[in-house]
Structures are given as structure tokens and as C-alpha cells.
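Attaching the record inline, Q. Sequence:
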Amino acid sequence: MVRGEARLEDEYLDTLLNPTVIVEVLSESTEAYDRGEKFAQYRRLESLREYVLVAQDKIRIEHFLRRGDEWILSEVSGPEATLDLSSIDCHIPLASIYEKVDFNSSEIQVPQMKR
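Structure, as predicted:
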């Protein structure tokens, strides 16, 4: 998500240089990288205000919010909770985010966005 005009790296239009919010869905194979080196790289982006990590195996979201030079972590969990993305004035119930996820299935289903 970006505020204002998007700045892209090249003609492939697949790398946004000025995101406001980045959301990552965690997986076993990439979780350590998403929390570590990738987030370290993202923190260098001046435009970035919020970084969101979404768990696949439980209703839990970790939300990092930039305040000056500091990043503040909060966690929201449970279907009754709401994720508040203050930088873009967006409030999303976790029940909506996880609406089509079947935690009893051996294979996690990624929720489809509603149109």
C-alpha cells in the first residue's frame, strides 16, 4: 500500500520503492527471513510506516508501527480482534482476514479477497 504516487524500480512494475504498509503472510520456510533480514531491509525505507506479519496456523497478527526512529510491536489475536493500520486509516476485523482459513485441514488454505 502506498500513499501518493507510486514509485517503481523499473519497467517490470513489480518493485514498489515507497510503500506505506507491507503485509507478509508467514510460512515455515520464510518466517525467519521475514522477521529478520527482510524486515531489516524494509526498515531502511523512509516511506514505510507499518509492517504486518500474518500467521497461517492461528489467528494472530504481529503489527510493527514506526514512531520516529523506533518500531513498536503490538499483537492482535482472536476472531473478535481488529487490526488497525493507522497510517492508512484502515481497520480490519481478524475474522475477515481469516474468514476462509480452515485450521483443521492438513493443508492451510489462503483466504481469497472479496470483490
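The chain has one domain: 1-115. The longest strand covers residues 60-67.

More tomorrow.
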